[in-house]
Design brief:
The complex is a heterodimer of chains A (351) and B (362). In chain A, 25% of the residues lie in helices and 29% in strands. With 351 residues, chain A is of the alpha+beta class. In chain A, helix 3 packs across helix 4 and helix 3 (97-107) runs parallel beside helix 5. The chains are: A alpha+beta (351), B alpha+beta (362).
Amino acid sequence: MSRIDLDLAHTYKPNPKSDEDWALLPLRMVFEDGGAYALLGPSGCGKTTMLNIVSGLITPSHGTVRFDDADVTHATPQQRNIAQVFQFPVIYDTMTVSENLAFPLLNRGVAPERIRARVGVIAEMLELSGQLNQRAAGLSADQKQKISLGRGLVREDVSAVLFDEPLTVIDPHLKWQLRRKLKQIHHELKLTLIYVTHDQVEALTFADQVVVMTRGKAVQVGSASQLFERPEHMFVGHFIGSPGMNFLPAALTPGRAPAGAATLGVRPEHVVLATQGAPGALQGTVVQAQDIGTYWLVHAKVGEHVVRARVSGEYAVPEAGETVWLGVMGPHTCFYASNEELVAALTEEPA
Amino acid sequence: MELKLEQVGKQVGASTHLYPLDLTLVPRAVTVLLGATQAGKTSLMRLMAGLDKPTQGRVLADGTDVTGVPVRERNVAMVYQQFINYPSMSVASNIASPLRLRGGLDRAAIARRVREIASRLHIDHFLERLPSELSGGQQQRVALARALAKAAPLMLLDEPLVNLDYKLREELRDELSTLFATGDATVVYATTEPTEALLLGGHTAVLDAGELLQYGPTAEVFRRPKSIRVARAFSDPPMNLVEGRSASLGVTLSSGLQLHVPLPEAGAQALTGQLTIGVRAGALRVRERPGDVALPGTVELAEISGSDTYVHAATAVGELVAQLTGVHRFELGSPITLYLDPAQAYVFNPTGDLLVAPKDKA
């Protein structure tokens, strides 16, 4: 296992000019030994490029990749000792489950009794012990993907295990079970795991640290609660959460926005329905109130801006056309500069 | 348009795709067809469109029998999961095609209408491009724009957002609900996702294994699922189901825990068998309130959606999932106590039919 240091940029073009020509803009990133990381972002954000640079499938056009301080920028995935799990199962259909799991170890000349022990452990973790002697060919897609996961995790000496959207083929009802498995396995094996996905649930559930990416840039690295409570970039506020953060011109809260703030950001979960004329509350008109069963989503217009508030159905819910007062200033309110980066967050309740 | 299905069923060889069902769509409103894959949503939609002929029953459009009238002779707009556009035609021509086919509009009027619809779907900057030059989300917007241009009285959408990233899905779903609300079409929208049904509102028809289980206003079906099957199909995360028996003051759970749920007086005999207690994930809390019942357990996983945390816990009554607003951290294997207000519990009888539903607070 290794600590992985990236200090690089990558472009697929010979003469990059504008920011758009870069798949990865200049970045520094550290993956600590034994950590569970996710690279999260929409398609085209650069997450897969970053994963392929870590694995050695792509050599960065600029800069270096270091594993425990050794420069591995030009080393192959084999030399880097990387294990990978892809979207679709990569297994040998004609082999048994046990032979499939043993294969990466056999290749590396591990002693037979050691192999047997390790295959036993991994099979037990993935609940494949009952099928060890079955041929892989007859198994369902999610069983096969479990074998793929097992093959990725079976070696104890890997620098890191990389996952590229590994749960895509899994039935939605089984996904949470596999997420749980991966989480447990990380706890037990303490391997460095890096997981690429565009799905916020997978990233936030699996990883201790989530790298949120957009347009070739890692805009925030943080835990699920940091990304939820203190988005350091407007994109994070927008991308994390359904619906994401509300954004309003900071000028709507005169005297309360810190210097340099252009935009106020507040999550629908943190907007409160206030009483008429409450200090700091904005007047709005309800355009829609959606009954989501266990709560309501109220959409209100403040000037030309729509603010969404998630409110409990335990109290009276305002109807379309009603005037409401929206409390947008609270301990979770964030302010952003014109470059979309966080300048300040309110830390105490307003008076 | 009022579309009415009378005892419509579909048999293909030996297998039944749809059991005979009656369904009258509310005109000019949205009806969601909700169910897992293979529930019969697409089969039903194809019968509504006239793409397939039912093996029994009648389809009535505004009172006229259109059973067996092929889709070409009906005025129906459809949008599919896959982004289907004319690949060699520009975005503008794609959107204009139903207008040209219909006739009666000159070139300037068509161009005006195309621009209007395109701007509503935010694709007016791409009018001269080919569909293949657009992202997936934009391609689906073109398909939606073409369907809107048709201005058909019946619009059928078969999981139109399923192949998009969740953020795009959110955006487009918001725009679609506005378009549906302001339009004149009777809209049918198929989805596998309970939350999508709730966000779209309108009416919902719950399908399972080729059967129409329940039809009604969406929020009402959600609040009063008439059976365990409906409750299962219409809950995400799944409704917690726990075995129990009727007791003097309500029900006794398998762990011996008492829940004070008022059971109906009538038909007490039917209550001698095994009951099922249903609890929505959102009704379980980690902070106690007066009158709550405590369910101690251990954390198996905390799934985080970005807005909610779903805690899976192993308890004496089985595995339970609690939905908590916001992002919360739980260590795997750590102790947790979930709290339930008994008034939030559903009770189903031995055959799985609803006996008690939580009362509305309003």
